[in-house]
Amino acid sequence: MPCYEIDGLKPVIHPTAFVHPDAVLIGDVIVGPRCYVAPLASLRGDFGRIVLEEGCNIQDTCVMHGFPGTDTVIGQDGHVGHGAVLHGCRIGRNALVGMNAVVMDNAVVGEECIVAACAFVKAGVEIPPRKLVAGMPAKVVRDLSEQEVAWKSDGTRTYQELTERCLATLKPCEPLAEMEPGRKRFEFPGVVPLVEAKKEGKA
């Protein structure tokens, strides 16, 4: 995978983590146990330190970076959706940052929060635990329900299981020329988008 040393600092990846070969890690990057780093994520620790604590995931095309002397941290079981940008901020334990959201310098997202897709969290903002945050700039919308927090935790477990699946079975291959008869599908009983879970009364 593209890992790069700079000024004598190399990325650190725990053996139980999965970092896709097409992700890029530079310098002072610490990837903890059971983490998942998706294709095309960029973790650039050439100024400040980047830390992924145990069990968190950072998805496709996410960017993590920070100013000199800062730490950009995703807490335990943190969940960062596709295309999000985290710069010199801290994401609390079991929080979710939605797709294409931006969290700026010195912002702190509290434990078990959900930052909505495309939200812009301004520099220096501190968000209390268990809040739904949305908008540009982002504001606290309301408290999260127990069901919503449970839905988030279930989604993160799915990514922790993906880490195990990737370590066990992901490998390069040649594509087939056509779909084989009776082609199987991946099955994830009970894993549904939040909007569907609410319709079903699960969140």
From TrEMBL:
Its EC number(s): 3.1.2.-
Coiled coil: none
CDD domains, per the entry: LbH_paaY_like
Keyword check for Acetylation: no
Highest rank taxon of the organism: Bacteria
Main EC class the enzyme belongs to: hydrolase
Keywords: Hydrolase
Gene Ontology MF term list: hydrolase activity
One Pfam family named in its UniProt record: Hexapep
Keyword Transit peptide appears in the UniProt entry: no
NCBIfam families recorded: PaaY (TIGR02287)
Protein name as catalogued: Phenylacetic acid degradation protein PaaY
Gene: paaY
